[in-house]
């Protein structure tokens, strides 16, 4: 085991700053709402209330699938969150704190992983800040909100860290958490496979130099740990879906076909994602920098003797490629792991040349800030609405308790604090699958009251909200950045 600093120093200089950082963001009520919030937490809320594994907010979608169960995604996120909500209560604060715990688990486990492989402390701190820019983005359209990604990443980081200790028990626990990560957020499988194998290879090489190394016994025990972990995770999965594997498979596969492209088309679609609109400024430079630094590791192989870094880098490259092939649209996963690679390479590649390392970090910082330029602009120019506006809407709902309400994630948080009216449905998923958002005033059914943010209504149904204030900067209007993203309107 290679440690560049003691556990005490780790706690003082890394762990405490990380927890403090996430605490500050929690106190500022991050993460912001995301358009998928009601999709991902509806089933958990229903379970916490003693209901079945279904999301009643997805009324239109549930009518398409015969089972009515929330089989669109694997169940572990819903059941984990439901247990938490049963304990902490259903409110915005409890949901925010759940995400806060996930962020801390991920950051601390990743920091321990980086410490184990002798990366400088700055690596853990930088990767935490970059992780926050993904999940707690100040731009509501870029934040991950209450999606399942944070929990999946927490399980992933915990599983990978457990694998670093080369023992049967740690391998068993590590494989368990990696499996749980996959059954929480399937895209994590790209990194569970790639980094998991990389860590196992490093452990094997470390032991191979031992003359008394029992190869057969070593491999057999670790294979048994893997099989036992997979069996346990699969059993838990089957219990969660009440052993209805056929029903789950049919719904999950159909939903996946709506969301992802075929493997053959994955790379062209990914390139399109990172180059369209402002992609040449916001996304593409990151991938170029990552590729250049990765090549530099092997080009300067005579100067960089950290063979573990090279194996981990190969794992990172394979993970990003698998990410693209599995789900090209999940660009924020690959984007984040590119930055983990960039920070790690710079901190090691120029370890003995402090001036060059400073310049390299400055260039990387400029590219990162460039990638966040629209998000920073969104935060600076944002205007908020008063609580009295939300109170007026609540009073209308109290006067008409039997009406049906189509609400979005903005109204769910700021108007209702997730204490939703009984007859609520998700406005974002008001149309039957594979459609979702309403696109015309004709999609508003008689008797259903809409409570949604003005900016979203204006974006998707402009005939009902033709204009809403956008962010303006240096004479340019940014149509994708609403000035009042949390301004809510009630349409009877």
Automatic annotation (TrEMBL):
Record-linked Pfam families: PMT_2
Keyword hit for Transferase: yes
Source domain of life: Bacteria
Segments forming domain Glycosyltransferase RgtA/B/C/D-like: 73-227
Keyword check for Transmembrane helix: yes
Keyword vocabulary terms for this entry: Glycosyltransferase, Membrane, Transferase, Transmembrane, Transmembrane helix
EC class of the enzyme, as a word: transferase
InterPro entries, per database record: RgtA/B/C-like (IPR038731)
EC number of the protein: 2.4.-.-
GO terms assigned for molecular function: glycosyltransferase activity
Name this polypeptide is given: Glycosyltransferase family 39 protein
TM segment ranges: 12-30, 81-102, 114-134, 168-184, 219-245, 277-299, 311-328, 358-380
